[in-house]
Design brief:
0% strand
């Protein structure tokens, strides 16, 4: 199901951005 796959990719992208933001805060 392409829509479900897209949703999954979006969650991964959001998680990566969130992790990146945390890394910036912890510098």
């Amino acid at each position: 199901n392409p829509k479900y796959s897209f949703y999954g990719d979006n969650v991964v992208a959001q998680a990566a951005k969130y992790q990146n933001d945390l890394n910036e805060l912890n510098k």
